[in-house]
Write a structure and sequence with these properties.
The complex is a heterodimer of chains A (about 120) and B (about 110). Chain A is an all-beta fold. Chain A is built from no helices and eleven strands. Chain B starts with a strand and ends with a strand. Classes of the chains: A mainly beta (about 120), B mainly beta (about 110). At the A-B interface, strand 5, strand 9 and strand 10 of A face strand 4, strand 5 and strand 10 of B.
């Protein structure tokens, strides 16, 4: 199992450009999450998904969009990049189901994004 | 709003000693609390989970306590080693698995 795989590892964008951060997991987990991590700050939840076709906003969704067409993939889209979106982005998944309300998250190794 | 506080200063300790990290939370009644380890340039890795009805949880050299009255969790690493040097994140969670993460505490273990 590769676990949670994120691509690219690094990216530099100009203001106003768009890009998609890719996330895929091979563990058949139904829940998937996108977090951003800024220096000295905790992980902030951007969007999450409880299964294919279902997504919901987290704490800081503005400027981002997601889709979940398959169980494995959960891409994060930035439409008009802004300097405030400079951050490290982490994707995570968990096999949470109705019987297990607090299972651990499995994280990818992140995408470091700089917007200039 | 919900607030998670972890030691903002790095914790420097000598090899072999016990490291104790603190996680305090306010405006919050988590049903459980998770601890993660994060190495530079890597994603967080799950270490331990403790539920609200558990006072203490152990795993090898790790021990976690959870005091819902004090709204605090303590994370202990006994017989610490340089390889334990990392950032440790606490994440209280409510039902539905929407975790809220603290900013983390940097632990440095010197030989």
């Amino acid at each position: 199992n590769a676990g949670v795989t994120q691509t690219p590892k690094f990216r530099i964008l100009k203001i106003g450009q768009s890009m998609t951060l890719q996330c895929t997991q091979d563990m058949n987990h139904n829940y998937m999450y996108w977090y951003r991590q800024d220096p000295g700050m905790g992980l902030k939840l951007i969007y999450y998904s409880v299964g294919a076709g279902i997504t919901d906003k987290g704490e800081v969704p503005n400027g981002y969009n997601v889709s979940r067409s398959t169980t494995e993939d959960f891409p994060l889209r930035l439409e008009l990049a802004a300097p405030s979106q400079t951050s490290v982005y982490f994707c995570a998944s968990t096999p949470l189901d109705r019987a297990a309300v607090n299972s651990p998250l499995h994280f990818g190794n992140g995408t470091r994004l700089t917007v200039t | 709003s919900q607030k998670i506080e972890q030691n903002s200063e790095a914790l420097n300790i000598q090899e072999g000693k016990t490291a104790t990290l603190t996680c305090n939370y306010t405006n919050y009644s988590p049903a459980y609390l998770q601890w993660y380890r994060q190495d530079p340039g890597r994603g967080p890795v799950f270490l331990l989970l403790i539920r609200e009805n558990e006072k203490e949880k152990r795993k090898e050299r790790l021990k976690v306590t959870f005091d819902t009255t004090l709204k605090q969790s303590l994370f202990h690493i006994t017989a610490s080693q340089p390889a334990d040097s990392a950032t440790y994140l606490c994440a209280p969670g409510e039902y539905g698995n929407k975790l809220v993460f603290g900013a983390g505490t940097i632990l440095r273990v010197k030989s």
